[in-house]
Design a protein that fits this description.
CATH architecture: 4-Layer Sandwich
Strand content: 15-25%
CATH class: Alpha Beta
Helix content: 25-40%
Radius of gyration: 16 Å
CATH topology: Purple Acid Phosphatase, chain A, domain 2
Number of helices: 8
Shape: globular
Distance between the termini: 35 Å
Structural class: alpha/beta
Number of domains: 1
Length: 229
């Protein structure tokens, strides 16, 4: 059994409350995140630092990658996109923290893009139905092929960082963020649960508790105003 947190987007105080709520109800449970740790909210530095210190495993999101590529490879497509996607608050949070930023960027780029776990499959935006012909009926049976296809297509609008397509049914619960919903949303036909509940827009930060592809519980906390005002 594991917990998976939705898109955090710099909402540090909200994250801290949600994390405490998860561990209060499920002590010692492994905690994961669908990425988008940075941008939009006020405390990107603090969020990444909290994730790192508490050993929360995360898959990188499009905002995490845009941050990395803007600093390291500013002329790349991902790097150029960042200035239009909530970068200002991230730059503010890393002001006068150059050494820490470099450590965090290395931490981000080492994060996986997908996690195929016993209890579920985690990625940021999901595995689009666009890949159904390439991946076949049982995409997780050839994990190496799947990774090669998905991770070589990062700038594609259907890709694992960006897609808002119908998701491919992996025959295992797929947990994703990226596409916002007011509440945690389960799509039965794709066997996919969406956990981005728009914390950075003032709604709430959410997590699902899952066990062997079953949703056991849902935990949410309202966005702390300090994170976004």
């Amino acid at each position: 059994m594991i917990a998976v947190i939705g898109d955090i987007h710099g909402c540090f105080y909200t994250l801290r409350k949600l994390y405490a709520s998860i561990l209060n109800k499920y002590p010692d449970i492994p905690v994961y995140s669908v990425g988008d740790l940075v941008d939009r909210g006020n405390y990107s530095f603090e969020v990444v630092d909290f994730i790192k210190k508490n050993k929360i495993t995360f898959v990188a999101g499009n905002h995490d990658y845009m941050f990395y590529y803007f600093i390291k490879h500013p002329s790349s497509p991902l790097g150029r996109s960042w200035i239009y996607n909530g970068s200002e608050t991230t730059l503010d949070s890393y002001s006068n923290r150059f050494a820490e930023m470099q450590r965090h960027l290395n931490f981000i780029i080492k994060a996986p893009l997908t996690l195929d776990l016993f209890d579920c499959f985690i990625s940021h935006a999901g595995i689009s139905n666009y890949y159904s012909r390439k991946l076949g009926k049982y995409p997780l049976e050839n994990r190496e092929k799947m990774i090669n296809i998905v991770e070589s297509d990062l700038n594609n609008e259907h890709g694992v960082l960006w897609t808002r397509d119908k998701l491919l049914n992996l025959n295992k619960l797929q947990i994703v963020g990226h596409t916002r919903f007011e509440d945690i949303y389960y799509d039965k036909s794709s066997n996919a649960v969406y956990v981005d509940t728009a914390a950075c827009s003032g709604n709430k930060l959410s997590a699902v508790i899952v066990n062997e592809s079953n949703i056991v519980d849902k935990i949410s906390v309202p966005t702390d105003p300090k994170d976004i005002i």
